[in-house]
Predict the 3D structure of the following.
Amino acid sequence: MCVAVLLLWLLVVIAISAKHELWRDEVRALSIAMGPNWFWEIPAALKNEGHPVLWYMILRVGFSLFHTPVILKVISICIAFGAAVVFFRYAPFPVWQKTLFLWGMLPLYYYSVMARSYGLSMFLCFLFSSFYNRRKESPVLLACVLFALANTNVHSCILACVLFVLWFCDELLITRGFLNTYRVIILSSAFALVGIGILGSIAISLPTHETVWTEAFALNMSEVLQALWMNMKHPGTHFGDVLPGFTVLQRDVLIWLLIAGLLSQPMAAVSLFVGMVLLGSFFTIGYPGRVYHQGIFIIYCISLYWIVYQKQKTTKPKRTPIHYLHLVHNVSCWAVVSVILSLHVVLSIYQIRVDLLHDMSSSRAFGKFLETHPEYRKAIIMGEPDYLLESLPYYAPNSIYIPREGRFGNWVLFTQANRERLSLSELLGIAREVKNREKRPVLIALGLFDISKYPGCELRYPPNKVFTVSSEGLTRFRAETDKIVEFRSAVLNENYEIYLFHPH
């Protein structure tokens, strides 16, 4: 039965992924991974990306072996399937509960169909849980898992730090009587490996003052402490996407019930509480969390429940306070966790329906248009906003010119190198210069529909970008461009009108 469930899940994921139009954040990672000339230059390419290196290295290896961008979807599905297999094979939960999880929105869609690093986080968290109760036999293997988890994304690095402390405390406070010289050396080596992984992740992920995506550098200690305190009081504040339909107070209660369910193993309960506060504080002062970011917290909860549930199965406490805490754990695991997993199944149905019935991005349609029109196959594409074209390289080989940075490239820089202000007249001037220099057609992709309605306007969009449309610039634009096609069907914001630039 388990094999049948897993194979059916895999077939469904493959079918949805085949229809799924990749969004810019998904393709951006592949573009960055393939940007440097040499493999070891990838960390430098991630400056101001806010991400550690592991996902990019995996993509680079995959593309180097198979030389097709399709590897992005293949790797994402393979990693998610690996996580599903580990979960079904080793998690101590009942089969019905594991099935609920598998068909939820995180493993079925956001961490498999969507090709981002968060599926890798799920896989590594489950590996950590499956190895944890065997950590005495292979501590270095557990350390390697935490090393990799810390280098998956910033959210996982935060939680890897908490899991590391959990492991450290369990070794020193609980199993210290079994320590000898050999084990101290092995544990010291394992802990050092984890520390190196965490420090390396921080070194690569920490942005410089040139970044425009976060204002964390401007924060003082008072604001940081305020964020920590707010997330202690109201832990449900930043988890509305993974716990929708509940008020903040109701989400607070759910999270406190999840923490209470781990009190039979106090260090696990503390780990869940600390991880929740740190992750929520990061969403407050670092970068707001979307559903796939928030979902890491749900995976983290399941991993801790896995560890505690497995330990409880091997102990039979008498009727002591610990026994009643075990009962609280069972109630929380069977009731609270199951409610969340059931809710996620409903949400997965909704999200998959949206993906199957609508375009998530217009990049696939635009790529098909370029392929079926020979006169545009070698055209240079310029976009405004420029980041709307980051998903196009997956579907078309056309060169992309970034006007705000004055360079060719498949991804934009979210730093001060990307000009804050640009006017329509300047965009036309840049298009003229590029066309004269490259001797190729230039197509302008505007994410602003019916631009003639905006004379004399300053249009703003994140992060802090301004696009000015003057009456003079609009007159020039009408005279020097012809609209050839438009794409409006995407449910997200990757829609654009395409204009052919033809200067006099």
User: Anything to note?
Assistant: The chain has 19 helices and nine strands. The two ends are 69 Å apart (CA to CA).
